[in-house]
């Protein structure tokens, strides 16, 4: 995260604390915030997504943006964390996610209810919309809806302790991926990444819907392994080679 973006986040947080940009616990709309801070809407949107990843605000689809509950020290610590996302931590984070999310997808296939499936399907459809419309903010918005989808799958396992553990891991990953996107933007985008990510998520969701725990576990692990390779490719400067490797693997699976 560069200094300009970090400073914008600090300014937004200060205004939040002062109550200058909120009304009844909600933030002003994105357009008004962009005007207030005199920045482009796309720039403001990135800052808001980062703030949600930090737990400072809660963006709810079709409802608005709500104030979160993080303290000042935690916010400053998190902003400092966003400046560092070492490549050697990627494999460790994905190893942890695989241990959690593989079995969790299996539990979700066995325990999900109609409400769970509606939330999971809603997040998947948002990713589909980004992909189909080639949305100009697909990178940053994709991070947001990816987090919503994965959290919805964990919720479908109906294990509150597991959900609490996952939330910490998810926040670590989301903060890191926001940092990667901001620091390595010149190495993006993957030309075929939207298709791959959507297809991998769709495979997980379909297995959960069918009530097939083994397939759900397999698809979740495969998605995480591919995601690890994509992110490592960005950091190492070999994104295109990683993309070709994953694309070949994906075509064989099809």
UniProtKB/TrEMBL annotation:
Keywords: DNA-binding, Transcription, Transcription regulation. Signal peptide: none annotated. SMART domains: FCD, HTH_GNTR. The lineage of its organism: Bacteria, Thermotogati, Synergistota, Synergistia, Synergistales. It comes from Aminivibrio pyruvatiphilus. Residues 2-70 form the HTH gntR-type domain. GO terms for molecular function: DNA binding; DNA-binding transcription factor activity. This is GntR family transcriptional regulator. PANTHER family: TRANSCRIPTIONAL REGULATOR, GNTR FAMILY, UXU OPERON TRANSCRIPTIONAL REGULATOR.
């Amino acid at each position: 995260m560069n200094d300009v973006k970090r400073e914008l986040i600090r300014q937004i947080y200060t205004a939040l604390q002062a109550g200058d940009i909120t009304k009844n616990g909600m933030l002003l709309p994105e357009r008004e915030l962009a005007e207030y801070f005199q920045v482009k809407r796309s720039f403001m949107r990135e800052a808001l997504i980062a703030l949600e990843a930090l737990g400072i605000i809660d963006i709810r689809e079709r409802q608005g943006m709500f104030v979160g509950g993080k303290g000042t020290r935690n916010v400053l610590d998190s902003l400092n964390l966003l400046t560092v996302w070492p490549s050697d931590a990627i494999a460790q984070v994905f190893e942890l996610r695989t241990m959690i999310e593989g079995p969790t997808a299996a539990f979700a296939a066995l325990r999900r209810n109609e409400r769970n499936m509606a939330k999971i399907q809603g997040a998947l459809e948002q990713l589909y919309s980004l992909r189909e419309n080639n949305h100009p903010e697909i990178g940053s918005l994709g991070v947001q809806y990816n987090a919503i989808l994965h959290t919805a799958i964990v919720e479908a396992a109906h294990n509150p302790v597991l959900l609490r553990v996952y939330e910490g891991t998810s926040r670590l990953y989301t903060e890191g991926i926001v940092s990667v996107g901001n620091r390595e933007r010149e190495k993006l985008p993957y030309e075929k990444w939207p298709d791959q990510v959507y297809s991998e998520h769709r495979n997980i969701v379909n297995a959960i819907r069918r009530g097939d725990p083994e397939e759900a576990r397999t698809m979740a692990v495969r998605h995480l392994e591919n995601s690890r390779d994509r992110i490592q490719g960005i950091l190492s400067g070999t994104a295109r080679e990683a993309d070709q490797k994953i694309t070949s693997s994906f075509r064989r699976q099809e």
